[in-house]
């Protein structure tokens, strides 16, 4: 390959070959050949193509799922430690974790996603020094955003009361949230670093760092909550500390690793120039993800307005924690679907693109079905991992059928969203999210929960209706897609960008 002839770039590309340029001809070209070989019987072609696609799929999805699940386990374990302090503490940690922290998480992750595209383009164009500049720009911008979010954390108690939460739960949640303030700035550094590494196909170090930090987090949480007696604020402070450990360890890897010596050139004043344009790009990247992330936070906030909100919040928080944990698997497949479809379309392989969509969707759905079945089997005992209350256990058991349906939908919806990203349908999906989630789901949930007195289950069922509508729309659009036309659109984009000699997002 051309890049291998360059004596400067050769070590970098050998240790971290870009997926789109180095691996694609050998793998996706083989898949297209298998699917196009009419000399083979259909069943033989299907088996060979499925095996080839599965190897590609799990190579992409496996590491991503590991990182997301390990990081999520830290928040989940913090909630478990808080839950064993009492029902009020569990409700407070749930409201703080799901209602406040996830607000910041969605915004910061969405804004940090701009780095993923920019770093990927720069790495593919062999402009390696720009990856470090983009990393620093995003970190500066997210730190400024984090400073503004800090005020929401500081004044979260009156905000929660204004939204209708009880004074007792809001006060306890505020104590938990205060300990999460340092975590905001860990987000500001972590998300750009994560995307910087992913753009170079460096995923394993993040997984190892996260796994080691999780073990340390569990130990420190046990000491802070039970041995020192710091309670809610201790559990959240340990969570913040754990995120900072991940940030420092990843940054140390970037500085010391041979794999990053061409992409990290040290700190530069270029990081503070042109931030306005970078902000516009980051804000646009955040819209679609925020609409998705914040949707189920509305469910928790609405549950706080019910009669006996403590039990409702406890039950919902347990179900949301389980849902979030399984959702990390779907997020990994979302990323894999986006990469697979985008690579195949760029390579001019319509059959491979369509086949990849089918395989990744079926695999993700089957895993979600297994998870849903486990939830139904364990519905009467699953809550005792979080709290010992029998009232909460009964409420969780009552919600488990709705949780199981949600898990199965989440085996399809995130994957199809990844397909949409791979095809460049982000704007369309954003409109679909607004209509299905906030025009249909939230009002319907409020109607069932409050007017028809169905409580937390009614709110969830209504919002589940919005998710079902969105999933059906994405299925309809995907099944009607002309993949040959999508290949032509991809080719036109590539030719246009090549003519202008500009990166994609500067077009």
Automatic annotation (TrEMBL):
Bilayer topology term: Multi-pass membrane protein
Cell wall biogenesis/degradation as UniProt keyword: no
Subcellular location: Membrane
Major subcellular location class: membrane
This protein's UniProt keywords: Membrane, Transmembrane, Transmembrane helix
CDD domains xref list: MATE_eukaryotic
Top-rank taxon, per record: Eukaryota
TM regions (residue ranges): 56-82, 102-119, 140-163, 169-190, 202-224, 230-255, 267-295, 315-341, 353-382, 402-421, 428-452, 458-477
GO CC terms of this entry: membrane
UniProt region (Disordered), positions on chain: 1-30
A single GO molecular function term of this UniProt record: antiporter activity
One GO BP annotation of this record: xenobiotic detoxification by transmembrane export across the plasma membrane
Pfam families in alphabetical order: MatE
InterPro entries (alphabetical): MATE_euk, MATE_fam
NCBIfam families: matE
Family to which the UniProt record says this protein belongs: Belongs to the multi antimicrobial extrusion (MATE) (TC 2.A.66.1) family.
PANTHER family: MULTIDRUG RESISTANCE PROTEIN
Record-given protein name: Protein DETOXIFICATION
Organism of origin: Vitis vinifera (Grape)
